[in-house]
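Structure tokens please, single chain.
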Amino acid sequence: MTLRLKVGRKGYVILPKAVREAVGIEEGDEVIVEVGEGIVLKPVRKKVDVEELRRVLRRHWEVLKGVPGRREPAPGELAGSYLEEEFEQ
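Here you go.
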């Protein structure tokens, strides 16, 4: 994807909401600026608390172990077991 953006009076460039959402940039986040043949902006990834991740994965594994056999879960059987919900705050 290529976008054409205008640079403001003080050098500001506004990233459209769709772009920010696509790469996970939120207000207050930091970006890395790489200068070479052009300019590249990259979001600074937040540090992961490895112990917290292990705790969440263990809990998720316990939920999944409760599903008998190798069948598809019944509707609602795994409700609330999505990892994405663990990291939303």
